[in-house]
DNA sequence: GTCTCAATGGGCCAAAAACCCACGAAAAAA
DNA sequence: TTTTTTCGTGGGTTTTTGGCCCATTGAGAC
């Protein structure tokens, strides 16, 4: 169960290598990996990628696939094919399992670099997002915080009251 | 149970050394730690940070996450994870667990220094706030007292009546 | 077949963080 | 008032680690 694991929290600044390599902070690396060692990188939005432990990601995929399947059962064959095509496209391009080198170092794959929008040698904000780790372009991170922050206290109060 | 523990009270002046290290007063350290040894540092406002025992903080987090889980139980796993992700991302910006060195000394982490607004070698007012310990920039503390003081008697009367 | 270029993985170094100790001052006890 | 102990602060040392650099390997082109 993903939620019962230790929460990934903390905000760190890291510089990207000239080969788009990044060293994860040890505070995030250990709980992110958990027991397994495989990592999934996913596209979130412009200026943001996310990293998931395969153990957390897999149930999410399975659940999504179950929903798709059940929806397809009721549909027509041609619609089924079309939706399968859409799904396959998303699965192929929006996520990818990546290896993790020694010292917790990973390479941001080719198709994911433009979305992040950080040039080699640039800086990346590494953010623990409870269930995953997010990689942000600094400007995009600042913008995100500026938008989300005002309502944050209220949301917390709502949840904890 | 956090509330049943001894209340954290008192006001102390401490100097921040050039490495952003701060020694907590022993009067506050022992009751703050309780049994566990981990601390959570949180951003309160400009000129003010707060310190919580992890034992006090964790139930609050668990409660918030439990609410999310129960509220979203009818939805998809994908949505549940997304909500946790949003919340966790914001939590990361406001708080962080920090280790405590010997002699009850802690290091104010990188992202928290600017909000406190105290340069290395400067002074910090350490205040017991009953359920947590607050670190204040002296000027901000004075301003806070100036604002809060007039209504103090009234609030006490309200609480004790 | 050979040369060149590029990608990948590993090793090294320096800066910073964590740890430890010691001194001095202040408070408490005698 | 004097002595003793506790506690806050500074500094030195060691270990970790983030960032840079190099070496080796594999692929592609000429």
Q: Spans of chain A with pLDDT under 50 lasting ≥5 residues?
A: none
Give the overall shape of chain A, derived from the CA principal axes.
Answer: globular
User: Mean pLDDT of chain A, nearest integer?
Assistant: 82
Any idea of the CATH class of chain A?
Answer: Alpha Beta
Structural class of chain A: alpha+beta
Largest interface: A-B, 31 and 29 residues
Largest sheet of chain A: 6 strands, antiparallel
Give the helix proportion of chain A (percent range). 40-55%
Oligomer: homodimer
CATH level 3 topology of chain A: Chemotaxis protein chec
**Total separate domains of chain A:** 1
- Rg estimate of chain A, integer Å: 18 Å
User: What is the CATH H-level superfamily of chain A?
Assistant: Transcriptional regulator MraZ domain
Give the spatial strand order of the biggest sheet of chain A.
Answer: 1-7-8-4-3-5
- What string gives the helices and strands of chain A in order? EEHEEHHEEHEEHH
- Distance from N terminus to C terminus of chain A (CA atoms, Å) equals 25 Å
CATH architecture of chain A: 3-Layer(aba) Sandwich
The overall strand count of chain A is 8
Strand fraction band of chain A?
A: 25-35%
Number of helices of chain A: 6
Summarize the structure in words.
The structure is a homodimer of 161-residue chains. With 161 residues, the first copy, chain A, is an alpha+beta fold. Chain A has one domain (2-56, 96-160): Chemotaxis protein chec, CATH 3.40.1550. Helices cover 46% and strands 27% of the residues of chain A. In chain A, the strands form two sheets. Chain A has a six-stranded antiparallel beta sheet with strand order 1-7-8-4-3-5. In chain A, strands 2-6 form a two-stranded antiparallel sheet. The mean pLDDT of chain A is 82. Chains A and B meet through strand 1, helix 2, strand 7, helix 5 and helix 6 of A and helix 2, helix 3 and strand 5 of B. Chain B binds a DNA duplex (30 and 30 nucleotides) through loops.
């Amino acid at each position: 169960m993903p939620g019962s694991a230790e929460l990934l929290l903390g905000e760190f600044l890291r510089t990207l290598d000239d080969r788009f390599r990044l060293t994860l902070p040890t505070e995030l690396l250990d709980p992110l990996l958990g027991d397994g060692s495989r990592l999934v990188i996913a596209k979130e939005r412009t200026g943001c990628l996310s990293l998931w432990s395969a153990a957390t990601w897999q149930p999410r995929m399975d659940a999504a696939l179950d929903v798709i399947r059940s929806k397809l059962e009721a549909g027509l064959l041609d619609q089924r094919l079309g939706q399968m095509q859409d799904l396959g496209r998303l699965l192929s391009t929006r996520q990818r399992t990546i290896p993790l080198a020694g010292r917790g170092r990973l390479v941001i794959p080719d198709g994911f670099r433009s979305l992040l929008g950080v040039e080699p040698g640039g800086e990346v904000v590494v953010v623990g997002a409870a269930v995953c780790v997010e990689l942000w372009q600094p400007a995009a991170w600042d913008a995100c915080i500026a938008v989300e922050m005002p309502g944050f206290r209220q949301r917390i109060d709502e949840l904890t009251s």
